[in-house]
Amino acid sequence: MSDPKNIKRRGMMLVLSSPSGAGKTTISRKLLERDDNLKMSISATTRAPRPGEVDGEDYIFMSDEKFADMVNKNEFLEYATVFDNSYGTPFGPVEAALKMGKDVLFDVDRQGTQQLHGRAGDDLVRVFILPPSKDELECRLRWRDQDSEEVIITRMAQASDEMGHYDEYDYIVVNVDREDSVDDVHTILKAERMKKTRRDGLYDFVRGLCK
């Protein structure tokens, strides 16, 4: 007899990318508060902790030497150097979560997304967050008061290049209103979970219904 409990699902990787300051980190945090089956991928980084950041929760902080050793051992799903600091996603914890049916959220840039796409295949769903305007993006960068004028100019130039590659993503969300954007991304997540290709045991369940 067909039993829907026999339908299992492998977890997926949900990537949120955006230019710096467009809101992906805030949207990520709100999404995690809403959804118990979603966990954040914790990146390793060689940069120094910012005020309030906790090692092992916000990032895994490590030396340049340790990071290079992990790269050599192919222990990252993706890695990159951004503004003289290195970032990477350890493979082991992500694969363990996917096997348990947990979805893993990634807050990475375009370069990281490309690397994930090359390794993750159908496990990956890519969402790009756009700002409502370039003026608003610059305003948000200045409001954070974390970067020098030189860095802000560099980030704005980089943003133009990143936004030009929007068509490499599966979904686009324009972040005019934060709560609306969180709703949009959560809708994407729920719809992707229902895809027949993600649901192991569905074929046998339907066969049982049709007997």
Mean pLDDT: 90
Tally of individual helices: 8
CATH topology title: Rossmann fold
**N to C succession of SSEs:** EEHEEEHEEHEHEHHEHEH
Structure description:
The protein has 211 residues and is α/β, with parallel strands linked by helices. The protein has a single domain, classed as 3-Layer(aba) Sandwich (Rossmann fold). It contains eight helices and eleven strands. The protein has a five-stranded parallel β-sheet, sandwiched between helices. Strands 5-4-7-6 form a four-stranded mixed β-sheet. Strands 1-11 form a two-stranded antiparallel sheet. Strand 6 and strand 7 form a beta hairpin. The mean pLDDT is 90.
Compact summary:
43% of the residues lie in helices and 21% in strands. It has 211 residues and is an alpha/beta fold.
Keywords:
five-stranded parallel β-sheet; Rossmann fold; 43% helix; single chain; alpha/beta; 8 helices
